[in-house]
Amino acid sequence: AQKITQTQPGMFVQEKEAVTLDCTYDTSDPSYGLFWYKQPSSGEMIFLIYQGSYDQQNATEGRYSLNFQKARKSANLVISASQLGDSAMYFCAMRRFTGGGNKLTFGTGTQLKVEL
Amino acid sequence: DAGVIQSPRHEVTEMGQEVTLRCKPISGHDYLFWYRQTMMRGLELLIYFNNNVPIDDSGMPEDRFSAKMPNASFSTLKIQPSEPRDSAVYFCASSFRGQTGTQYFGPGTRLTVL
């Protein structure tokens, strides 16, 4: 069975600072993908970034980067230069590539608050 | 390109009434997912389709819930009869099997059952 763990229910960061949101996962599959989604207070789920288990380099998308440590089974999201608009709930998710279809397993989320 | 479209965005109904939620996936996507989100239970996968065929409905809570996908561009989630505990935000998402399989979510339908 797969499991995603996000141990930080809430985080605070000062504007313009960097912040790391933790995500650990558990799977026995050799091939999988890891995703981060953002859910602002308006409610929509926004895809941010993807990391494949065989990707050699950590994924980056603008101010978002994924600190992927395969041996430790962690896929932490790093947001650089935080902005007020980054205040939202952030979900980590995983997809198995062998037999899992396109199903995602989600973590419980981390609520990020960016302060002035 | 248009994203995933859901309607209605908000629905308020009374207990016992039938509720139908609608979803139009992104054109070309071959997977469609229905999720429910509540404060207590978080984000739950209810059912998903591949090429219009239901693959896994193990998350559907009760027989009161049913989902159909008559064609590649339309799906419905029906609750009959509705109960107050069905109040939640219902999301539809779609993805393409190839590449990363990233799921793209619709804006959600906020359902309130009185």
Structure summarized in a few sentences:
The complex is a heterodimer of chains A (116) and B (114). Chain A has no helices and 12 strands. With 116 residues, chain A is an all-beta fold.
How would you portray this structure in words?
The complex is a heterodimer of chains A (116) and B (114). With 116 residues, chain A is mainly beta. Chain A has no helices and twelve strands. In chain A, strands 2, 5, 6, 10, 11 and 12 form a six-stranded mixed β-sheet that branches. Chain A has a four-stranded antiparallel β-sheet with strand order 3-9-8-7, with no helix packed on it. In chain A, a hairpin with a 6-residue loop joins strand 5 (32-39) and strand 6. The mean pLDDT of chain A is 94. Chain B contains no helices and eleven strands. Chain B has strands at residues 5-7, 10-13, 19-24, 31-38, 42-50, 53-56, 65-71, 74-79, 88-95, 104-105, 109-113. In chain B, the strands form two sheets. In chain B, strands 2, 4, 5, 6, 9, 10 and 11 form a seven-stranded mixed β-sheet that branches. In chain B, strands 1-3-8-7 form a four-stranded antiparallel β-sheet, with no helix packed on it. The mean pLDDT of chain B is 95. At the A-B interface, strand 5 and strand 6 of A face strand 5, strand 9 and strand 10 of B.
Query: What is the gyration radius of chain A calculated from CA atoms?
Result: 14 Å
The greatest interface here is: A-B, 20 and 23 residues
Mean pLDDT of chain B, to the nearest integer, reads 95
Distance between the termini of chain A: 41 Å
Counted beta strands of chain A: 12
Structural classification of chain A = mainly beta
**Distance N terminus to C terminus of chain B?**
37 Å
Largest sheet of chain B: 7 strands, mixed
Radius of gyration of chain B: 13 Å
The global form of chain B is globular
**Strand-pairing-aware structural class of chain B:** mainly beta
Helix content of chain A: under 10%
